[in-house]
Specification:
The chain folds into 2 domains: 98 residues, OB fold (Dihydrolipoamide Acetyltransferase, E2P); 200 residues, Chloramphenicol acetyltransferase-like domain (Chloramphenicol Acetyltransferase, 2-Layer Sandwich). The radius of gyration is 27 Å and the shape is elongated. A hairpin with a 5-residue loop joins β17 and β18. The strands form 5 sheets. Strands 9-18-17-16-12-15 form a 6-stranded mixed beta sheet, with helices on one face. Helices cover 29% and strands 24% of the residues. α3 packs parallel to α4, α9 crosses α10 and α9 packs across α11. Keywords: Acyltransferase, Lipoyl, Plasmid, Pyruvate, Transferase. One of its GO terms (molecular function) is acyltransferase activity.
Length: 413
């Protein structure tokens, strides 16, 4: 009996996943626990393993394809078994194990290289198929993510009429990318599918921007004493707290004192949040992820700093679990390390507000007696959902946070 392998639900809110890469291929022997494929969920890459011994009989979902939760990915069973609506596939499957022998002896197969010396992006199965059929992959335009060549591209090239060969050999016209909206593309432009983390970010940012009437208030904070306080902590404790650690701690304390900011809109009702769960925006090469520090207001500075560093490190290493980037009640986005003076962060739903943290800058300040001295200042950009939070409420929260940062000893008291 052949077993179906379906798209797992790796989080309560997960609705679909994208097939990133098949590790096993049709005809490969499979043991329980072997990784069959990699999938990209909301914002992470996860492995799907086999729960049975046997052979990978048929791949149903191709690389780059979006599959809903519980959607069929492949079949695992005993060699020769009929699967799905294609009994013929089972007959072709036994011959598959012989295919790897061909690419082993073919020198150009392991790492195909284009004429310009660049490595050709091609899936292992497509490479095996090309070697078996004698297809030159250097002229194939891949239909997979980032132009990756898939098996179906190789088969299409193999079945193309010979008369079309000269056309395929012609330069740019055959490989010219196509715009779906009529956008004029110029020479050198490349087209890739909006998928994975970037797709999720795009969807959520558009949803937030279209559903929420946002207001952003920018406030300047004198952080001269905060920077001195940070140096004092380093000298006395040996702990190298980041500016972000102190801001997170101050924000958590301020949120507990101003619960009116901890709200969410649920249809026609308002939810008052009981927990200060800080979402901390972390930039990755593929997009943005917001791991959550739960009950941050109950943590001491040491624990909060350790949690922030751990979550950021594992986020960049793609090692977060789905539950670790869910459930925020307020978010913080820090672009200060990039020298950003001010910006407009987008609310991370279902939160009602987000704090944007900007760069620390030197500024000359004149006191009441006309004396000029150098101070360090930082700007905070506070964006909130005006359906839930009024301007005066937002201003009081930011002023309270400013006072904490300007009198840093109160942050840890």
């Amino acid at each position: 009996m052949a077993f179906e392998v379906c798209m797992p639900q790796l989080g309560l809110t997960m609705e679909e996943g994208t097939v990133s890469q098949w590790i096993k291929h049709e005809g490969d022997a499979v043991k329980t626990g072997d990784v069959l494929l990699e999938i990209t969920t909301d914002k992470l890459t996860n492995e799907v393993t086999s729960e049975h011994d046997g052979v990978l009989l048929k791949i149903v979902a191709q690389e780059g394809e979006d599959v809903p939760v519980k959607g069929l990915l492949c079949y695992v069973g005993q060699s020769g078994e009929a699967v799905g609506d294609a009994p013929a596939a089972a007959a072709a499957t036994p011959a598959a194990p012989a295919a790897p022998a061909a690419p082993v002896t073919a020198a150009p197969v392991p790492a195909p290289v284009a004429a310009g010396g660049a490595r050709i992006r091609i899936s292992p199965l497509a490479r095996k198929t090309a070697a078996k059929l004698g297809v030159d992959v250097s002229g194939i335009v891949g239909s997979g993510p980032s132009g990756r060549i898939r098996q179906q591209d190789v088969l299409a090239a193999a079945n193309a009429p010979k008369a079309a060969a000269p056309v395929a050999a012609e330069p740019a016209p055959a490989a010219k990318p196509v715009s779906k909206t009529g956008l004029e593309l110029m020479e050198g432009d490349t087209v890739s599918k909006l998928a994975g983390m970037r797709k999720v970010v795009a969807q959520r940012m558009l949803q937030s921007h279209t559903e929420i009437p946002p207001v952003t208030q920018n406030t300047k904070v004198d952080v001269t004493e905060l920077m001195k306080f940070r140096k004092m902590l380093l000298a006395e404790t040996g702990n190298k707290y980041s500016v972000n650690d102190l801001i997170l701690k101050a924000t958590a304390k301020c949120l507990r004192q101003h619960p009116e900011v901890l709200v969410s809109l649920d249809g026609d009702q308002i939810i008052q949040r009981a927990h200060v769960n800080l979402g901390m925006a972390v930039a990755l090469d593929a997009g943005l992820i917001v791991p959550v520090i739960r009950d941050a207001d109950r943590m001491g500075l040491d624990a909060l700093s350790a949690a922030a560093k751990d979550l950021a490190s594992r986020a960049k290493g793609n090692k977060l679990t789905p539950d670790e980037y869910k459930g925020s009640t307020f978010s913080v986005s820090n672009l200060g390390m990039f020298g950003i003076e001010t910006f407009t962060p987008i609310v991370n739903q279902p939160d009602a507000a987000i704090l944007g943290v900007c760069a620390v800058e030197d500024e000359l300040v004149m006191d009441d007696e006309g004396n000029i001295s150098k101070h360090q200042v930082m700007r905070l950009s506070f964006t909130y959902d005006h359906r839930l939070i009024d301007g005066a409420v937002a201003a009081k929260f930011v002023m309270a946070l400013r006072d904490l940062l300007e009198k840093p000893m109160s942050i840890i008291l």
